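Hi support team,

I'm filing this because I wasn't sure whether my run with adenosine-5'-diphosphate finished correctly. The job status page said complete, but I'd like someone to confirm that the output block is well-formed before I use it downstream. Pasting the exact inputs I used:
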Amino acid sequence: MERLQAALQKARAQREGGAAEAPRRKARGSVIPTRRRRSSMIDDVWQTLPELEVNTDVWQLHRLFAFKGGADAAPFDLLRTKLLRLVRQHGWKRVAIISANADAGKSTTVANLALSFSRQKDLRTFAVDFDLRRPSMARLLGQHLQTNMGQVIRGEVAFEQHVRRLGTNMGFAMNDLPVHQPAELLQSARTAELIGHIEEKYSTDLILFDMPPMMVADDAHGFLRLVDAALIVIEAERTPLKQIDILERQVADLTNVAGIVLNKCNYSDEYTGSYHDYY
Ligand SMILES: Nc1ncnc2c1ncn2[C@@H]1O[C@H](COP(=O)(O)OP(=O)(O)O)[C@@H](O)[C@H]1O
Ligand SMILES: [Mg+2]
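And here is everything the job wrote out:
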């Protein structure tokens, strides 16, 4: 893996200013305050959201371990801490989780990160499943839904009826069926408005977006302009180095690259399990 990192660093160094010159969503300068404003009105708004069904047996079956601390949650808690450092440093509020192809482990990473963030009680976070072609967050979390995010984006169903809340500070916006016209929906003005609505009404510190793979469809390309940064998930033993480099360039042209998670490594260590990042 050191070779992989060295080669990536070399490729990055050879690139002429690529990431540095990438267009950026205008920073809103809203770095998470250390003593956050605790408004009982916002807490009340959160309380009105329907609750997520907690089914830890299903979660563990789907490799979701971060609902409680401990050794299994450690890689995700570490990833949360590293991401949080960047989020605070740069004033980011929207982070997409992206990969080149399907099955890299994006949804598993987003769901685990969300469960880890749910234990960070001083932060209000949402996880949004925007892999509209192959949604999986609802299945991973064992949720049965009557409505979907397509209906929410089109204004046919109220966001507040559709989403689920875990505790007082973590929200999930999911689908259990594929949504029609995913690329058009994701790039529509309604989607941008919806994200603004979530941030304002629920006073979110961070929204995590589970995305479709970059190399499969153009859904993610347009959407990445709406986020502050992207975390790239790599299927470590299967993704060719060349493809990682191409993906990183593509993402860097659209938004900030928050880091790379090397998932499904055949080696692990006691601190990071199978998750490694190097930023
Ligand atoms: N670290 C891991 N080790 C082994 N299997 C994993 C790991 N992360 C994810 N998986 C499995 O890989 C498959 C694809 O994961 P998923 O998160 O749905 O990928 P994506 O959202 O990128 O398509 C799932 O069956 C999941 O359980
Ligand atoms: Mg997925």
